[in-house]
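Q: Please design a sequence for this.
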């Protein structure tokens, strides 16, 4: 049942209605009860469902029904994802599947033509796994194409297998890095990555593909997020970016990965408060997004906009940042969160709270869609907004809920500072006058392990700025800018 509830929680109201229509089409009989069971779950009814459905105790039939409903939900999610997805790799897969259908119906000419289109796209993106399937299909039906150059096809197949093997080896290296990076140990990303590559007798150089180098950068950025340490990871990311820049292969051939790489570098410099460097990478990113008739513009515009606005906000251009975010806030959760933060720093608490009130989904849904750290930030901003708006009952319940929900996970991650910050919010709310006293200031100093302005993450500093502004009775945005100024 928990699995079913988890899947349902990922569906919007519209998607839940679509699922019922999808289920009705699948049902061969009119007396099936899976749709009714789905409605019970949606409405929060979980007890004695076998009695409600069958009029008696029927545990076995109920469990079998749950299994069928779960399978249908998985089919629906997969089908919807496949039909709505516009990614280039999925487009290649669609062409491959279409070609196989053409071959089965003896439409060989159109089958080979469709395969050739899929191959061209897959080669451009270095999608070796799909190329393996494409070449497998071409070889399978090669005897039906008199114009096919079989020796050339076999040579391409062998070369692709080598690339595929290298990619699999890199996946194993990345899996090793991910495991080591999550362990509570004082090792730099550079040491972890270097050791992992050494163990597989591999090196980080220009022989690696754009995709492989992007994956390595992305993994490093993810590690920085896990460890809340963008400062220590920046030198390694710059080393990898130098390798990328030294590649002689034209970047336009790998435009998608090049744009992703520029965004990762812009993000990392922003988190390190290197705003000039971050904005420079964003300008490069914007230029690349315009290439190929802007084919990647829509896909990356939201990422670019959020990061551009954040840079503006932290370089004393809050009005421009808010105007930019307001363009996309209704369509993007990242924009909404960034807009809430920007409005909060300008002390427009009511406007920020109106955005929060529009977020109707559960934290489980948001975590699956946006990630755990996004949900954590949302929870902290919500508590601060409720404090500023003096919503007593909600403040107390959110403080208790936060500690209950996040304490264990934050302790495992070694993030006791977040928990200390929440406790200090509670102390301030209970007695606002105490925050200006020497004893409160001393408690703040002993509650945090300060790691220096250069190393501290910009968002950690932003939350602390609220506390500092209260202690010093100064403007929040002024204190925030003073703290993050490198």
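A: Design:
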């Amino acid at each position: 049942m928990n699995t079913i509830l988890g899947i349902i929680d990922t569906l919007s109201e519209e998607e839940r209605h679509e699922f019922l229509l999808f289920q009705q089409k699948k049902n061969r009989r009119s007396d099936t009860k899976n749709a009714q069971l789905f409605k019970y779950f949606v409405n929060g009814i979980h007890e004695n469902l076998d009695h409600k459905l069958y009029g008696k105790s029927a545990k076995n039939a109920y469990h079998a029904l749950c299994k069928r409903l779960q399978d249908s939900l998985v089919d629906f999610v997969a089908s919807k994802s496949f039909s709505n997805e516009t990614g280039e790799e999925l487009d290649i897969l669609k062409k491959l599947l279409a070609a196989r259908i053409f071959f089965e119906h003896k439409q060989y000419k159109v089958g080979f033509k469709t395969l050739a289109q899929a191959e061209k796209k897959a080669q451009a993106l270095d999608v070796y796994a799909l190329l393996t399937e494409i070449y497998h299909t071409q070889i399978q039906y090669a005897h039906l194409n008199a114009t096919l150059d079989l020796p050339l096809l076999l040579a391409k197949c062998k070369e692709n297998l080598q690339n595929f093997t290298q990619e699999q080896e890199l996946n194993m290296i990345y899996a090793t890095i991910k495991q080591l990076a999550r362990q509570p140990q004082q090792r730099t990303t550079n040491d972890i990555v270097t050791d992992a590559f050494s163990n597989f007798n591999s090196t980080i150089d220009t022989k690696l593909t754009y995709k492989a180098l992007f994956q390595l950068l992305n993994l490093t950025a993810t590690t920085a997020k896990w460890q809340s340490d963008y400062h220590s990871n920046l030198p390694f990311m710059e080393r990898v970016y130098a390798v990328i820049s030294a590649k002689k292969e034209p970047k336009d051939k790998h435009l998608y990965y090049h744009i992703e790489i520029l965004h990762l570098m812009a993000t990392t410099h922003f988190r390190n408060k290197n705003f000039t460097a971050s904005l420079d990478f964003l300008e490069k990113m914007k230029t690349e997004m315009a290439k190929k008739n802007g084919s990647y513009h829509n896909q990356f515009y939201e990422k670019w906009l959020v990061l551009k606005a954040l840079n503006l906000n932290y370089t004393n251009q809050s009005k421009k940042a808010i105007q930019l975010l307001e363009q996309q806030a209704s369509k993007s959760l990242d924009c909404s969160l960034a807009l809430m933060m920007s409005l909060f720093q300008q002390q427009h608490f009511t406007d920020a709270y109106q955005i929060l009130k529009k977020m109707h989904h559960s934290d489980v849904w948001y975590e699956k869609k946006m990630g755990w750290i996004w949900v954590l930030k949302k929870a902290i901003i919500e508590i601060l907004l409720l404090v500023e708006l003096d919503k007593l009952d909600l403040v107390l319940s959110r403080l208790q809920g936060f500690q209950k929900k996040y304490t264990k996970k934050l302790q495992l991650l070694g993030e006791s500072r977040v928990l200390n910050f929440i406790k200090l919010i509670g102390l301030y709310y209970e007695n606002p006058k105490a925050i200006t006293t020497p004893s409160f200031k001393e408690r703040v100093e002993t509650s945090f392990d300060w790691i220096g302005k250069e190393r501290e993450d910009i968002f950690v500093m932003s939350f602390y700025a609220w506390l500092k502004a209260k202690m010093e009775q100064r403007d929040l945005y002024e204190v925030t800018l003073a703290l993050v100024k490198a």
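Q: Thanks. Anything notable?
A: DSSP finds 26 helices and no strands in the chain. Residues 150-181 form the longest helix (32 residues).
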